[in-house]
Amino acid sequence: DEDEGWLSVDNPSTYATYALGGFINDNPQPAIVYGDANGDGSVDISDAMLVFYHVAKKELLTDEQLLRCDTNDDNEVDIVDAMRVFYFVAKKIDSVKE
What we know:
The chain has three helices and two strands. By secondary structure, it is mainly alpha-helical. It has a two-stranded antiparallel sheet. A hairpin with a 2-residue loop joins strand 1 (about 15-20) and strand 2. Helix 1 runs antiparallel to helix 3 (about 80-90). The chain is globular and about 25 Å long. It starts with 16 loop residues before the first strand and ends in a 9-residue tail after the last helix.
């Protein structure tokens, strides 16, 4: 057994710091890229296809993917969301999110 050093659950490499009013997260979560079904940080034709596959029930999206692909905040990913992602990729609209 090798010593894993100081980095472990008991000794994390980062700590939250306190500022007036509350704690500051030293490692903020990245912003959600709406329409990014495959999680690569951009919205392209592969994302549009994954959403269409989900709508057609050929390949269902995970909960995290569903969150990123619900473009109209109706708590479901359907043909409306698929078309918005596709129109964004085709440069017909300026934003995936309504």
